[in-house]
Design brief:
By secondary structure, the protein is α/β, with parallel strands linked by helices. It has a domain at 1-130: Ribonuclease Inhibitor (Leucine-rich repeat, LRR (right-handed beta-alpha superhelix), Alpha-Beta Horseshoe), CATH 3.80.10. Helix content is 15%, strand content 18%. The protein is built from eight helices and 19 strands. The chain has helices at residues 26-35, 186-192, 215-232, 300-303, 374-377, 391-397, 421-433, 440-443; strands at 11-16, 41-46, 74-76, 97-99, 121-123, 145-150, 174-178, 202-206, 241-245, 264-268, 286-290, 297-298, 322-324, 330-334, 341-342, 352-354, 360-364, 384-388, 413-416. The strands form three sheets. Strands 1-2-3-4-5-6-7-8-9-10-11-14-17-18-19 form a 15-stranded parallel sheet, covered by helices on one side. A two-stranded parallel ribbon has the order 12-15. The chain is globular, with a radius of gyration of 26 Å. The two termini are 43 Å apart.
């Protein structure tokens, strides 16, 4: 397409949807950059298909003359198959937002990225090949959003970011920290003073994956190290969203129950935690518990209230009612391999309310769980119930077959895994691992 006469263009959005024979290449980009020096916003998208021909004409690098676009404020390169960004990108001193999400081959950011002093948003989530951050990140004091910050991880530790590199980024509103297992000493976390970042509303803390075969002594050391580290990483009290991933400690810190503005909490693959924290008094709206495989029982301790006794004194009708999880709307529980019992021993129900606003409950891959709390199933707010890959629960609650179908039949939207899907999925995975084509029988399964 001719760009003659468009030299004063401010916004250019390019969507190359040629899945197998892309029409956009590096030489075209270089020509565009040389002639459209007035651009303020530039979007370059190619819909790369995994498994496409390796010699196809995909954009694999950004031309060096991108540095001529000095007026650029917004640059979107998301989903490109680029492996690096040119150093000349750091000459775009007006750049405020860089979107490189889902650039799965991207291995590094420019060393001079600290020159981009006006950068407010670095959207670099889902960049799985990005294993370290250049130390210049600490100079981006205007940053509000940093989707992925990797601690250490580089070949030369001196040229990569340490955890305390975040200390100067006082305007951060969203940050997801990965590689916390690379933190050498808890002092580094303490110097960060995360609790002083008053603008921080959304925070992700990702530790290292559990390594099989490291021995009992190594396991104990990792448990203690992660406990101390997470204790030192106390977020500001006004944080609204918190993710804790691959945490190796066996207990969660007490500061968790002091986050009085927390709306969303995800505890993912915290495999050594044996008990859920008492979260019932927090204003949570969304809660996800996934792969907490050491938890065997969920009871009143989760609610943050004491168990009552039938032999105890009866409560007065004038006593104030207790509400556990007063604002919770969505609860997801998944891959809890050892969870057998989920029950609240409540006898004075007239004074205790549990999750009164819960509208969506999802339970997946809890093979040993025997029953859901009757108290939750009877709540009139529950609109959606999903039970997936939970054989005991499915036998108990399935329509027309289960003994307790009547306890959930009033819920408008119920979803359960079809009969026999476990075996079909197992076979399909085996076939996939062997490099075979799609399994015809698996294609026929209604997974909707």
């Amino acid at each position: 397409m001719s760009i003659h006469g468009l030299n004063r263009l401010h916004t250019l959005l390019i969507y190359d949807e040629s899945l197998f024979n892309p029409s956009l290449n590096n030489s075209i980009l270089s020509e565009l950059f040389s002639k459209l020096a007035c651009l303020r916003a530039l979007v370059i998208r190619q819909y790369y298909l995994l498994g496409s021909h390796p010699e196809a004409n995909w954009i694999r690098e950004i031309p060096e003359n991108v540095g001529k676009l000095i007026h650029l404020k917004y640059l979107n390169l998301s989903e490109l198959v680029i492996e690096r960004l040119p150093e000349t990108l750091c000459e775009l001193y007006n750049l405020q937002k860089l979107d490189i999400r889902l650039c799965r081959n991207l291995r590094e950011l420019p060393e001079g990225i600290g020159k981009l002093m006006n950068m407010r948003s670095l959207l670099n989530g889902e960049t799985r090949s990005l294993k370290y951050m250049p130390i210049g990140i600490s100079k981006l004091t205007s940053l509000r959003t940093l989707e992925k910050f990797v601690v250490g991880g580089g070949v030369d530790g001196g040229s990569t970011c340490r955890l305390e590199s975040l200390k100067n980024l006082q305007l951060l509103r969203e940050c997801r920290v990965q590689g916390l297992s690379n933190v050498s000493h808890v002092d580094e976390a303490e110097r960060l003073q995360l609790y002083n970042k008053k603008n921080l509303l959304r925070l992700g803390l990702q530790f290292g994956r559990v390594v099989d075969g490291e021995g009992e002594e190594g396991r104990r050391k990792n448990i203690e190290k992660d406990k101390q580290l997470l204790e030192a990483l106390q977020p500001p009290l006004n944080v609204e969203t918190l993710w804790i991933v691959y945490y190796g400690g066996n207990i969660l810190p007490k500061w968790l129950t002091s986050l009085t503005n927390l709306r969303e909490l995800k505890l993912l693959s915290c495999v050594n935690c044996e008990h859920l924290p008492p979260l019932g008094k927090l204003p949570l709206e969304k809660l996800e518990l996934y792969n907490l495989k050491s938890v065997k029982r969920v009871g009143n301790e989760f609610l943050g209230i004491e168990e009552s006794s039938e032999d105890g004194p009866s409560s007065s009708s004038s006593s104030p009612s207790v509400i556990a999880f007063p604002k919770l709307k969505s609860l997801k529980v998944g891959a809890m391999e050892e969870l057998e019992e989920w029950n609240y021993r409540i006898t004075r129900k007239e004074n205790i309310s549990i999750m009164p606003r819960l509208s969506s409950l999802e339970v997946r891959s809890c093979n040993k769980l025997k029953a859901l709390p009757d108290y939750l199933l009877q709540t009139t707010a529950l609109q959606e119930l999903t039970i997936w890959e939970c054989p005991i629960l499915e036998n108990r609650y399935r329509e027309g077959k289960g003994e307790d179908w009547h306890k959930i039949s009033h819920i408008p939207h119920i979803q359960m895994s079809p009969d026999g899907i476990r075996e079909k999925i197992r076979i399909a995975l085996l076939v996939h691992q062997a490099g075979s084509a799609l399994l015809d029988e698996f294609k026929a399964v209604d997974t909707s």
